[in-house]
Each structure stands twice: as C-alpha cells, then as structure tokens.
Amino acid sequence: MCTLLVMQVNTGTDWAKPSARLWRLRLTEVAVLGGFAAVAVGVAAGIGAGSGIGLAGALASLAAAGVAAFYLRNRYRSWAYRERAEDLIVARGVLVRRVSVVPYGRMQFVEVTAGPAERLFRLATVQLHTAAAASDARIPGLEREEAARLRDRLAMLGEAKAAGL
Amino acid sequence: MTEASSEADTESWHRLHPLSPLIQAGRLLAGLFALLAVALVQGGGGYRSHLPDLLVVIVLAFAALVRWLVTRWRLDGSTLRIETGLLRRDSQQLPVARIQAIDVVRPFLARVFGLAELRIRLAGSSTKADGRLAYLTEQQAATVRAMLLAAHQPSQLGQPGQLAQPAAVTHAPGEPTPALAQAALAQAELPERPVSQVPLGRLVAASVVMAVVQFAALGVVIAVVATVAPRVPTSLLGTLAVYMFGLVTAAWRRVSQNFGFTVALAPDGLRIRRGLLGTVAETLPVHRVQAVRMVQPVLWRPFGWCRLQVDVAGSGRKDEGSRDTRKELLPVGPRMEAEYLAQLVLRHQAPQLDKPPRTAKFKAPFSYHFLAAGHDDVMAVTTTGRLTKTTVWLRLEKLQSIRLVQGPVQRGLRLATVHADAAGRRVHATFRDRPADEARELLDELAILSRTARQTRQI
Question: Rounded to an integer, what distance in angstroms lies between the CA atom of residue B368 and that of residue A162?
C-alpha cells in the first residue's frame, strides 16, 4: 500500500502536469484582456477627467492584470494528475486545495473538449464522469496527443475494471 | 380486463389499459373544475373566461387517447420494451439488470377503477431513462413488478455486478416464459415481513409541530410589520393569506402522502407503502441503496423524532406521488426505530465515530457540536449539521470517487475535509474538518477499502 503525499505534489516524480502551453494560453488571455482594459479605461478616463488620471487608470489596469497573471501562474502550477494501478488522482487549487481520487471501474465516460482558445494552442481538456455528480476529475491544458492517449487508456481501463452500481 | 391480465403471461406486445386516457384527462378535468369553481365563487360570469381552458383539456384528452393507441409494451427475457409516439416513434428498452427501484403509483382516480401506474427507475442521468406504464390493472402491475424483480435478484444470478448476461442465460432461448411468470407470481405471493409502521397520531403531530412553528414565525413577521408600518396595504395581507394557505396545504400533503406508512421486508427488496387518497408502493432492492441518511430537525428534538431517507441511483426528477431518488424509509419516528431500519438496509453494525480536533471549532463554530466521522472496512459514517443533525451511512463498495478539500482557514488550522461520493446528485458522506494527516491517509485508505469491498461483493 503506497502512502501518498498529496500535498507535496510538485516534488513528486510520477505526477504528470498539464502542458507548458497552458501557461502560455493563460498568459495570452490575461495580456489580451489586460491590454483591452488598459486602453478602454485610459481612453475613457482621459477624455472624462484629464490625461493624468487616464494614464493612472491604464497603469492600474495593467497592474491588476499582473496580479491576475501571478495568481494564474500559481493555479497553473497546482494542476497535477497521476495514473495509479486502480485509480486516477487529480490535484488542483491554490486557495482551496482539492484532490480527487476516481477508481477506473467507476468511470461512466470520458469527455475530451477543446475550446477555440485551447485549439489555438493545440490543447484539450479531459474530464472523467462517474455516477456521482460531485466527482470532479478534470484535467485542462493537455497536449492533444497526451489527451488522446489518456482518453484511450482511461476508456480501456474503465471497461476492464467496470463495476455495477 | 381479464383478457389483458392473462395476456401478461405471453411474450407478445401489450397495450395499456383502455381506461388510461380517461384517467389522464380526468385529472386535468378535476383541475379545471377547481378553477371554474373558484371563478364562480369570485362572482359574475368570470367562468366564461375559462371556456378556452376546457378546449385545452379536450385537446389534451384527445392527445392522451392517441398516445394510448400508439403505446405498447412487452417483456422479453431480460428487457422491458416500451414503444410510443405517433409522429416520432420512441422505443425504450429497459434492461432488467439496471433497474434501481420499481414504484406502483395509484392516483385516486386510478384507484377508483382498480388501475395502477408502474414506474421503473434506472440508473440513468436523464429523466427519459425512467420507464412508465400508465395504467395497468393492479394485478398486471403486481405481476410485471414481480417478474422484473425476480429476473434482477442477485441470489438467482450469482453475480450482481454483471446481471445482464446471467439474466439472459436464465431464460434460455427455447424456454417458455409462462413458467417464469408463474415462478415470479409465486414469489410475489411470498409473505412479506412488516418491519415498521408510522401511526397516524405521530405523523399528524410531527406535521403540526412544523406548521405551528412556521405559523409563529409568520406571526412575528406580521407583528413587526404592523408596528413599523401601521397602515399595511391590503395586497400584503392577501399575499400573507396565500402563504398561510400554502403552509396548510404543505402540512396536509405531508400527512396524506405518508398516511399509513408501512415498510415491509419482501424477498425482492424493501417495500414501502403509503398514501391516503392516492397510494404508492415502492419496491427497493436492498443492494441498490447507495446511502442511508438520518435527519434530526431541531424542532423534532424534544420528541426524539427523526427522519430516515435512502438514496437510489438515477435521475433526480421529482414526480408527484413518488419522490425523486431520495426515498423516505421513515417519515417520522423515534431514533431507535430509524437505527434499526438503517441496520436492516446496510446489513452491518455501524462503526465507531470520533470527533474532529478542538481546533475545528475555529473553522466550524456553529456545527462543531455535531461533527463526527468514522469508518471500518465495510462502511463510512459521518454526522454534520448546525441545527439539523444529519447522519450518513455509506457502504464502501458504493463509493464513486473520493475528494479531499482544504480551504485557506483549514490549511492554517491543519485540517481538511474528505468527501466520499456515491452515485447521485448530492449523495456523499462528509468527513468534515479532520486533521490534515488523517485526511490524507483517509483518501488512500478509502480508495483501497472501497476496491476490496467491491471485489468481495462481486464474488
């Protein structure tokens, strides 16, 4: 029986992480949103209350984007998953730390999704569904090949170890 | 009528009872009459405005007739097939192995004609997955239920995990089905052992206690409003009257739905019977129960009463007559009785509970007094709640997933919460605010114990 140090996932060796491209995707999202916000706030405040305040507003927006990026960096780093012999573990969360264990035999179906932004970075999200609505085993930002591999492996294991309700 | 019941033994297609459309339309008509009565009482020719409604009812009655004409069902081997739909054919196949519970629902009007509706609950996430046969004769409903449950019995099949295949094996292709039907009938007539009954007095008292306190709360609100604003607009009084009426009907419904509440142990599962005007008989194979929950509301505590519920896998639809996947095993009763029933369902002595560390008081000051959890290698037990104490028993082989959650406050206090999820929307035992080390070990331990429990159960 292995003991699991779920809180120190970052140091573990057999823990897999989402692709580094997920971080680039998040960074791009923040940069685009932050840029837009800075321009919008700067222009609106600049016209309404003078150029000095406009500049301050734009800088504040950029600072907020910076804070968001820092938080997202931590959140990106917190994702980890591990395929064990009998179950899949997914760890995530910065403020609220969550670890889910889903036995392969309990899997109802595997869902692979890729939104437009994710497709742009050739990423996909794999989600496991069980008969319990509360199970939340979702792994975002997997490279497409890894997502396909995981999906096939999970589907195979799920079939092999399937158990009735 | 006699023709239909004798046909139930053969393997051909059947129709629903010819009176079905009448009953379905009849319930709408009753509602319309109520509306018309209200309109008449309110005065004048107001009822004329409800004439279009009558047209609607006629159209719906016609639709019910058409539906009856195009609906047919059959039971072959291990599947119940229901076909319906005029324009878009809808063919439903209900594998016996996936049945979670079977309800026989008899609304008042159906009871008058000796008819019953059969509801078959499957473990699907969509509401369409449930099978409904409305209406059959009572005898027919009993026969079909017995056949479905007999084919589903793990004792006859050996492997509850993979029912579909053995079920097909037990009915070899050439075997005549009437023999099966007779066997099923014989089993249906096996005596069931009543295990619990709720006396009317207790039911009414529990309902009244709840209603009285709600009334009192409402009274306080009225008093406050009256002192703050002496000239209360009459429209507000109207709303209050409607609300009070709602309270009374809710209390009445609780009594009428649970009237004559009886739990019996039959060979094919637990049988719950209840209802005053319309009656419901729910059959619940014991091994299909996902979790058992005991709820002790604060208002009932002086009387030592509690409520016992069981969770079944399936869609969370709320039907009239029969409740969603959370079924009541005891609407109100003493704790001893609830614990006896829980043990009957779980077939295991509950393990010892222990409290979370004192530091948890900072995290959960209002619920610490009820927090406790424990597990052994067969089941997990947890208690939570602020005013209402909720105890959840969960057999480990029913675990779907295990989650550990640690918020910032919990991290500071070195605590963590572990949820053990069973099939359903909100069915989980919650080990709240355990020491972080223990929670981590629990995560692994529950996974391993649950796996062994699953394997041993399947052998």
Answer: 38
pLDDT tens-place values along chain B, 459 residues long: 344 444 444 568 899 999 998 888 887 777 777 777 777 777 655 566 767 777 887 888 888 899 899 999 998 877 888 988 888 888 888 888 888 889 999 988 899 999 999 988 887 655 566 788 988 999 999 889 988 888 776 544 333 333 333 333 333 344 444 545 555 555 555 578 899 999 999 999 999 998 888 888 888 887 887 788 777 666 777 777 888 888 889 899 889 999 999 999 988 889 999 999 889 999 888 888 999 999 999 999 999 999 999 988 865 555 544 446 788 999 999 999 999 999 999 988 889 999 999 999 999 999 999 999 999 999 999 999 999 999 999 999 999 999 999 999 999 999 999 999 998 878 899 999 999 999 999 999 999 999 999 888 754
- B444 to chain A: which residues are within 8 Å by CB? 1-4, 101
| Distance in angstroms (rounded) separating the CA atoms of residues B225 and B231 | 9
Q: How many CB pairs under 8 A join A and B?
A: 106
Q: How far is A6 from chain B (nearest CA, A)?
A: 7
Annotate B366-384 with b (16+ C-beta within 10 A) or e (fewer): ebbebbbbbbeebbbbbbb
Structural tokens at position B386: 């602020």
Domain ranges of chain B: 3-16+71-189, 360-458
Secondary structure in 3-state letters for B322-382:
CCCCEEEEEEEEEHHHHHHHHHHHHCCCCCCCECCCCCHHHHCCCCHHHCEEEECCCEEEE
CA atoms within 13 A on the CB side of B21: 17
What is the SS3 assignment for B20? helix
CATH number for the region B360-458 comes to: 2.30.29
The answer to whether the Cβ–Cβ distance between A101 and B425 falls below 8 Å is no
Nearest CB among A102, A133, A136 relative to B425 is that of A133
Mention every residue, 6+ apart, whose C-beta is less than 8 A from residue B105. B116, B117, B118, B119, B278, B279, B280, B319, B321, B322
Query: Do residue B447 and residue A100 have CB atoms under 8 angstroms apart?
Result: no
Of the candidates A3, A105, A134, which has its C-beta nearest B419's C-beta?
Answer: A134
Residues B202, A81: Cα–Cα separation, whole Å:
53
Minimum CA–CA partner of B403 in chain A: A100
Task: Scan for tokens 């003078």, then name that residue.
Answer: A50
DSSP structural state of residue A136: -
